[in-house]
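Example (one chain per record):
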Amino acid sequence: MRYAVVQAAGALGGIRWRFALRSTGRAAALGFAGTILMIGGASTQPRTLASLPDAATPVETGAAARPVAAWTAFCQRMPAECDVDAREPATIRFDADLWRTLTGVNRRVNARIRPVTDQAHWGVVDRWDFPDDGFGDCEDYQLLKRRMLIERGLPRRALRMTVVIDDIGEGHAVLMVRTDRGDFILDNKTNTILSWRDTGYAYIKREGQDGRAWVTLNGGASPAATANR
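Predicted structure:
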């Protein structure tokens, strides 16, 4: 993607500001080049790929795993959401544009959806669905994030629904984004996007390459609890 020079002026907290974005040379290859100039005494603050999270090794995949039953039911209701084009890339190029998109979607969904258990919401122990009425539990947050990221042009094949054991020992669902700098996690428990290694979770299984089949992660076994937080 190439960027034309863009300039805008406005007020931010009573401070006049101007934004200039341009694409040249190495910065163009990274997909981002920009400088925010704060008018009124603040210093120029460049943003580069070096300021983004460090690269991390991808999570280790293992043998085939049984899909979450509620995922299978979700795919039966909405098969298009589970069909993956094998021609799509399995990882996404990590750059500032991607980071901006991920953080924006993660924050927006976390703020918009109100937590409720599947039992209270649907009258069943575990159901995976879109929280289009504004309510949902962990997997519903992540399904909506996944849909929004696909709408923004990200390949479905690189966006993996994932089951973990969380910090209090319960089953939990997150969205794993596979990039050329490692696997990053979108989570309804935090607006901070972390490398999978930095979440403190035990990784159990996730969608495989074709969307329907699942694979184990780091030698994990299926959690005893449903993913409901």
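Caption: The radius of gyration is 19 Å.
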